[in-house]
Write a structure and sequence with these properties.
Rossmann fold, 164 residues, globular, 5 strands, 41% helix, alpha/beta
Length: 164
């Protein structure tokens, strides 16, 4: 019997961008099963609730048969281990991302040696995106429609009290 290759793509996804969806698409192609894990971390002061972020991602990943969306609290490596997942999928956009992710991967390996980190690069058109940058654009009245699904942009504008 061939083992099922499972991976966890963890993140805050506040909000989910086309960059996140691009990494999800890549992960769905690389792994038999991809779990998108939405971190429930109030210290990050997310704009959207966990439920709202889950609804956005479930809607935009429904076309992938091998992707499921869950939320979790606590350490990513603990959640992965408890879920029987041994690979963490991470999107790396820039060299500063890589430095941070490399440090995190080594820390995760020290805590849970059986869990590996796999890095993928998003498409070039999304390589510079971050949810924080997009929130800044929307807060300033800029057009973020090329970086977010239309329904997510509408929710973001509403949340930030910008006209739709």
């Amino acid at each position: 019997m061939v083992p099922v290759r499972r991976a966890l793509y963890p993140g805050t996804f506040d909000p989910a961008t086309f960059g996140h969806l691009d990494v999800i698409r890549r992960g769905a192609q690389l792994f038999d099963r991809l779990t998108v894990g939405i971190a429930d971390n109030p210290r990050k002061k997310p704009l959207f609730t966990v439920k709202q972020r889950m609804e956005m991602l479930v809607r935009h990943t429904s076309g992938f048969e091998n992707v499921d969306v869950v939320s979790f609290r606590g350490l990513v490596v603990d959640f992965a281990a408890e879920s029987g997942i041994s690979v963490l999928l991470r999107g790396v956009r820039t060299s500063s991302d890589f430095e941070f992710e490399y440090q995190m991967a080594l820390t995760n390996r020290a805590m849970r040696p059986a869990i590996e980190s796999v890095f993928v690069m998003p498409s070039a058109e999304y390589a510079f995106l971050s949810s924080s940058l997009i929130k800044d654009v929307v807060a300033s009245g800029g057009d973020a429609s090329r970086w977010l699904p239309a329904d997510v942009l509408k929710q973001l504008r509403r949340r930030m009290a910008r006209p739709v």
